[in-house]
Known about the structure:
By secondary structure, the protein is α/β, with parallel strands linked by helices. The protein has helices at about 25-35, 60-80, 115-125, 135-145, 205-215, 230-245, 265-270, 290-300, 310-315, 355-370, 375-390, 390-405, 410-420; strands at about 1-5, 5-15, 40-50, 85-90, 100-105, 130, 145-150, 155-160, 165, 190-195, 220-225, 255-260, 275-280, 305, 325, 330-335, 350-355. The protein has 2 domains: about 1-170 and about 390-410, Rossmann fold (3-Layer(aba) Sandwich); about 190-390, 3-Layer(aba) Sandwich (Rossmann fold).
Amino acid sequence: xxxIGGSVKKKVxxxxxxxxxxxxxxQARFALRSLRSQPDLYDIFIQPLQWGKTSxxxxxxxxxxxxxxxxxxxxxxxxxxxxxxxSLQVTIPNEWEKLAPVNVGYTAGIETSKVAAEWLIKANxxxxxxxxxxxxxxxxxxxxxxxxxxQRTQQPAELRLNVPVTSVNxxxxxxxxxxxxxxxxxxxxxxxxxxxxxxxxxxxxxxKWFIEEFQDEEVGLVLxxxxxxxxxxxxxxxxxxxxxxxxxxxEHKCKIYLLHGDMxxxxxxxxxxxxxxxxxxxxxxGEGFGLPIFEAAYTGLPVVATGWSGQLDFLCDExxxxxxxxxxxxxxxxxxxxxxxxxxxxxxMWAFPREVSAKEKMRECYEDVTNATGxxxxxxxxxxxxxxxxxxxxxxxxxxxxFYTVSEEEQEWQQTLSEIEIx
Length: 423
């Protein structure tokens, strides 16, 4: 702990994939921005991580320059034997370590109904508290219980979470000058889907059901997707998979568009606000939070989505009222091919959207947009609520409150500092 200019500053080691284009990268950058919003409290050090095979961000600005400088500062500090007061570890619980006297785990949690036993063991042994991105993730941690026999006493025993867990959502992003995207679409009405091309996002069914529902109509579906990276090889693999699927379906008038490659946050928000993008379509099995769905909702797009998991935190208002086209689902065990030892466990479940309901809700949304009725007519009004509810100021404060509780001593120091007159 350092006393800087009469105030107490905690030395915080932020360990996470800050420089990657991934969900955890976005999470790590939100954590950093939250801590930077309280410069009198935290002296921040950074240990960057890779995240799977995802790409690294290529843009350079004030934040990237700050991160690079912090990484250099961290290397020098560790080489000199420096210690940290708190660690904030942005990754899956399997990778949490004791890096400081106080350790905070920040994870997206899980998209399924149950967390792995390894996560509970790590949480109980390593961290002092946990921050997750949604009420769904929080529920998974708090309500997963494993029963067994204590090998020492041979008595029945339970494994459950013994440390506090807090849910903090993401903030909105606002821009005053968005770029114009050179995108040409044949039809005026297009659904937009933004998701990684993998089993959890359920894109094959999304494409198939869309084509079957709008087979002979002038409606499009724009897919912003990739497998892992935004390179040419990844693009060709995705293109081949989508092409094979589309060719296996009946002849159709509706259109499928593939959008692939690096896009800045500003470009993504231009995509959401493109005049020919009329609605957002998401039929995943589960979301920790569902950031693209969130971005679409607060930019005013009507949303058709599976009615389960993290996206309900923002697709429903604070009174629990729905503001989206709620696709019915069945909870069932995860597919065998997605089981990931220690992460996605075989005995967990997630949502399987129902085909009939998905088609009904797509159609309902299409009719509402065309006739300016229903959820579609109210989407812009609801977006203003989201912009206020999930503002930077609100979410940074919520994160900092969940991360660390300022002691009475530190509050006194801050009050004293604020009363000092600089001559």
